[in-house]
Write a structure and sequence with these properties.
alpha/beta; Rossmann fold; 5-stranded parallel beta sheet; 9 strands; globular; disordered C terminus; binds guanosine-5'-monophosphate
Amino acid sequence: MTNPRIIVLTAPSGAGKSSIARRILAAIPAVRFSVSATTRAPREHETDGIHYHFLSATEFDARIEGDEFVEFEEVYPGLRYGTLVAEVGSATREAPVLLDIDVKGALRVKELFGADVMAIFVAPPSVEELAERLLARGTESEAAVRMRLDRARLEMTWRDSFDHVVVNDDLERASAEAITLVSRFLQTESEKGANPS
Ligand code: 5GP
């Protein structure tokens, strides 16, 4: 890889990172979304190969066997998610890649790719607000929301391990901040490191 550029967006589930990711992709068309593999079932609006590569547990195991993952995590009990080598292997400064992954996976990607990565932690204003957002989204049962909140509390403790923390108090403001950070990162040379500020 020459001068690879990997942007990682991570956050507790429901903090709004997917909305911010969509805005980054719209604002900077050169950035390509890394489509993860997952064993969870598709939601109604989701398409295989666009939102995720939806795999059975057996298919996921086969990809692990074949060394096809950069990282993978059991993000929720029984549900695995992973970044494919095929998705990030070709990232360059001209064709950077954006990963929307969980906190542990993000730490792993940073460890593996070092200064080629800029990792942004999107923080909700508070865990209470996160609970409201998850319930309002209505895509999960109450038990699933509780599971996500437990994990969110743990993930919030790791926020300082990332290059930048963007508080999602207002989606447009937070997206503009993230877009500025990504634009700056894409202008830096690999050797200079990941944190331009
Ligand atoms: P959801 O089920 O809401 O789409 O995603 C659940 C969580 O899994 C989110 O935090 C999402 O960012 C994370 N996730 C998605 N893809 C990956 C991946 O490839 N690796 C890891 N570690 N987490 C992922």
